[in-house]
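FORM 7B - TANDEM STRUCTURE REPORT

SECTION 1: FIRST PROTEIN
SEQUENCE AND TOKENS:
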Amino acid sequence: MPKSRYLLSIGYQAIFTDMKLIVEVADKRADFVKELLDSLPFVKTKTITPQKAKFLEELKKSVAEVSLAKQGKLKLQSAREFLNEL
């Protein structure tokens, strides 16, 4: 089932100045959810493209790999090994 993604920006006065959430919604409910969120004065919505959503997912995976490499749980190839593959 296709899903629409919305990037929400919710302001908090006390602890957070800004919090961003990604919400996945089935396409048939997307218009309703967007209208509902837009009706809340403290929520700003922004529709993101599927390409940007894919980029964000890949970036998240990359950050996780870097974290594992720093912990020594993932062996990375050297630059020379990489260049030899080319």
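SECTION 2: SECOND PROTEIN
SEQUENCE AND TOKENS:
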Amino acid sequence: MSAAPPGTTKLTLKRVQFTLEPGSSTGLIGPSGSGKSTLARLMVGVWSPQGGVVRLDGAAIGDWPSESRFRHVGYLPQEVELFEGTVAENIARLSEPDNDAVLAAAQQSNCHDMVMRLPENYNTPIAAGGANLSAGQRQRVALARALYGDPALIILDEPDANLDTDGEMALRNTLLALSKRGVTTLIVTHNFRLLQMVKNVLVLKEGVLLESGPREEVLKRFMRPAPAAAGEKKAQAQ
């Protein structure tokens, strides 16, 4: 699969090929500009590839009607965008909210308590762009939106952006619960703690898939060790 952003011809992905097995959890890493967000958009059908095809359960994802596709695929983009409407309507993707499904998504994303602290709870109006919410609150509502309806495949692009310590802990609990339920997940992240939540890792660089495989094997080659804490002695000097 090869791809370029709409309206351009310079490829940001070049002959990338891999399979996400049902129930697998995968981290996607690589330098900025390596094509990670492009890949995420292709996998949910927001963009179309210039060459090759993205298949969901054997069928080209572009052949799925949008309504049907987004019943099976949840997506948290890198740049979160909320819309004018209530919290419940945003979680329900601006469709008529199913109150039970909205509550379930909020609980699965661990943002229910946060929503209950808002002035009108799930009926709290959201201004255009989510201007009346903090960046962290917008991130957590958008995560609940990605989980709405219990999709079988969930793509999260930098899901820890703008989250404080409590928000990141809630996210990690969500990822653990998704893994236990057998939901297929792909997480674009630079956060080493989130990578500990996945079983497999893909590495992109300059639009090319350098490697894929079990987390521990891949990270040994592509992640630098964390700096030693103050007072700790290094085992080796280089």
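SECTION 3: OBSERVATIONS ON SECOND PROTEIN
The mean pLDDT is 89.
The chain is about 30% helix and 15% strand.

SECTION 4: SIGNATURE
Preparer initials: ____
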